[in-house]
Amino acid sequence: MTSLSVSEQRQQLRHHLEACRASTLQLTASLTPAEYDQQAHPDFSPVGWHLGHIALTESRWILQHLAGADCPLAAYHQLFAADGLPKAARQHLPDLPQVLELLQAVRQRVWGYLGIAPLDQQLRLWLWLLQHECQHAETISLVLALHRHPVGNGEFKIQNSEFKVSTPLPVSCPAAPAAPVYLPPTTVTLGYDGVEGLDNERPVHRVKVKGFWLDPYPVTQGEFRGFMAAGGYAHSDYWSPQGWAWQQRAQVSRPRYWCDQPAREDHPVCGVSYYEAEAYATFVGKRLPTEVEWERAAGWSAVGDQLGPYPWGQALPQIHQANLGGQVGQTTPVHHYPAGQTDLGIRDLIGNVWEWTASWFEPYPGFQSFPYGGYSAAYFDRQHRVLRGGSWATRPWALRSTLRNWYHPYVREIFAGFRCAQDADGSLPTLRERR
C-alpha cells in the first residue's frame, strides 16, 4: 500500500474501512436483546460494548489524536473504554440504534478528515485502527457463538454475507493425508515490517530454525475423538502439572465447540485450551510447534526462500484460499482449500482455527510499543501463549502468517485448535521442559 500515491492510498483505505464496517454491522442484523447487552461468559464483554468501543477508539485516535478535534464521544469514555468499567459492569448499554448512530456519526467525521490527512505520516495508525475493528468483530462472532452454542449442543453458524463462499462445501470429504511434513533447518527472518504490521510483529530479525516435522493440517475432530475415547481428559499422564491442575478445576470432557456429527470428523477441533492441545500432543507422542517453527512453515518455502506474509505470497487472502471473514460461519474440512497450501502441502495455516503454539507471548528484540504502551507490552508476562493463523471469523485485513495472537493457556472460548510437531530426530521435551 505504501507504493501507491497518496490519492490511491486514500481510495484504498476508504474501501477497506467501508468493507470492514459492513462486515461488522452484518453481525448485528439478527441480534436478540440478550445477545446485545448481556455477557455470554465472564471473560468477554457484551456485543453492544464492542460496538461502542469501536466507535470510541476511532473517535479518539483519528478525530482527537490525528485531527486535533475534541473527542465527540468523551461522555462515553468510562462506558466504552477498555480501561473503563470492569467487564461484568459493561451492561445496561445505550440501545442498538443509538450505538449504531454513534458509529455512523464518528465515521462521517472521519471521512471528512481522511480527505486531507497526511497519510504518508499517518498510514500505520489508520491501518492499526482497521485491524482493531477486525479484532473486535471477531470477538463479536465469538460472543454470539457462546450465546448460541450451549456446551455440547450441536452445530452453530455465524455467517457474514459480506464475504461470499467461492465454492460449495462438499457434503463428505476424503480422508486428509496424515503423514507429517519435514522442514529442513534454515535461517528465517521472523516478523513483519510492512506498514500494517502490529508492534508485536516488529522488528524483523533473523532466527535459526532446526529441522522438524509438522503435521500437514490441524488436528481434526475425528483424531481428537481418539483422545476422548481413551479417557484422555481423565489421565494425568498426558497433562503438564499446570494443565492437570486446570483440568481438575474445570472438569471438561470435550472441546467447547464440539459437534458430535459424522460430517464434522474432517473439521479441525475447535474450542480447546492450550492445556488440552498440549495433552493431546503428548497422547500421540508429539508436541506443539513453537511460533518460530509455525511461521517458518507458513511464510517460507521448502528450500528456505521467503514467500511473504502468506503461504501464497504477498496478496491479501481470498475466499478460495482460506476459510476467513465469516464467509462460511463455522469451520470447514481441513483439506478444503488446496489453493492456500504451502509448496510442501501444508494446509489450513491461514483461517479456519487459530493454532496454539508452545511459545510464550514475548517481545521481539528491539520491540517498541505502538500506538500506546499497553497494546502488547501489558501481556509480556509469561502468562499468555501465542496463537497463529487466524480463524474462520478473522477478517482478511487482520490475517497474515506473521500476526501474533495471545491468550491465557486456560482460555477455550476462542476459535482455537492446533497442529502437532516433532523434532527431526523424533525426540520430545519432557513435560517439565515445556513449562
Compact summary:
With 435 residues, the chain is an alpha+beta fold. Helices cover 32% and strands 8% of the residues.
Helices and strands in order:
Layout lengths: L5 H21 L6 H5 L9 H20 L10 H4 L15 H19 L4 H30 L32 E3 L2 E5 L14 E5 L2 E3 L6 H9 L11 H10 L23 H10 L7 H9 L54 E7 L24 E4 L16 E3 L8 E2 L3 E3 L7 H4 L1
Parallel strand pairs: 5-8
Antiparallel strand pairs: 1-4, 2-3, 4-9, 5-6, 6-7
Description of the molecule:
It is a single chain. By secondary structure, the chain is α+β, with helices and mostly antiparallel strands. It has 2 domains: 143 residues, dinb family like domain (Four Helix Bundle (Hemerythrin (Met), subunit A), Up-down Bundle); 254 residues, paralog of FGE (formylglycine-generating enzyme) (Alpha-Beta Complex), CATH 3.90.1580.10. Helix content is 32%, strand content 8%. It contains 11 helices and 9 strands. It has a 4-stranded mixed sheet with strand order 7-6-5-8. The protein has a 3-stranded antiparallel sheet with strand order 1-4-9, with no helix packed on it. It has a two-stranded antiparallel sheet with strand order 2-3. Helix 3 runs parallel beside helix 5. The chain is globular and about 60 Å long. The relative contact order is 0.14.
